[in-house]
């Protein structure tokens, strides 16, 4: 850094005098940039830290599930308490370092800039996770049972930790781009499927309400039956018993299920096309720089040719 400052020149070619305060600010901003890129844009071996954090969060989630099983409740709670303490310390430090390192970007400098950074959705999730972990640990350390029923819902709020693993939102951006690209097809399939659900539920309700009032007492019961049937879940708790009801159910099962299954195929093909497009863009980006370098070299050879009569050339020196 000292050599870089010593060799810095102005427009007239004279050395620029830089005070030690500017050097310290430069070192401070450079450290902030390194830390910010490590947390927000990991590359290479830096990804190992985020993989370890994911495994730690996943292990905590597994222990939270085991803590609800009576046979494993006591041992799981003891291990879970230790893991929660570790996660709270790590995530608390990471949140503080993340807010501090955000100052390397102009829009996040100063107090107002830090507040602007804290308003980001992922930063809000981080704050919620840290606060919920702190509350769980404080209540659990007061002699109360760590897996008390009142605390289980708050502890499972920490599932948001899994959401924060994707810091750059690549998965959500990919999903939103696929839905946006095929929005017309999806809306059409959902619209026709919704109409099939309404008609099937209404007709079956009219056919079954007198003979099978136990299962189809209201139209809401028929809607529940139609939704479970057309989405192929099939609990079997409500079944038409009249021949007319069975005939209507059979016809709409054949037609309606096909439209309810269409969105899955549309999204699947959309994901495949989007991934193929991303691979094509990466391949193009890898070839762009060598191609630009080749064109630049060819132009330099042409421009430096002594026999060239072009006015847009220069003499080699």
UniProtKB/TrEMBL annotation:
User: Which reaction is the catalytic activity of this chain?
Assistant: K(+)(in) = K(+)(out)
Q: What residue stretches are annotated with the Ion transport domain? A: 49-277
The membrane topology term of the UniProt record is:
Multi-pass membrane protein
Q: Name one GO molecular function term.
A: voltage-gated potassium channel activity
Alphabetically list the UniProt keywords: Cell membrane, Ion channel, Ion transport, Membrane, Potassium, Potassium channel, Potassium transport, Transmembrane, Transmembrane helix, Transport, Voltage-gated channel
Tell me which GO cellular component terms the UniProt record holds.
voltage-gated potassium channel complex
- Which cellular compartments is it found in? Cell membrane
Transmembrane regions: 47-67, 79-101, 122-147, 187-206, 218-235, 247-273
User: Main localization of the protein?
Assistant: membrane
Pfam families attached here? Ion_trans
Q: Which InterPro entries match?
A: Ion_trans_dom, K_chnl_volt-dep_KCNQ, Volt_channel_dom_sf
Do you know which Gene3D superfamilies this protein is assigned to? 1.10.287.70, 6.10.140.1910, Voltage-gated potassium channels. Chain C (1.20.120.350)
Task: List the coiled-coil residues.
Answer: none
Name of the protein this chain belongs to? Ion transport domain-containing protein
Query: Which organism's genome codes for this protein?
Result: Ciona savignyi (Pacific transparent sea squirt)
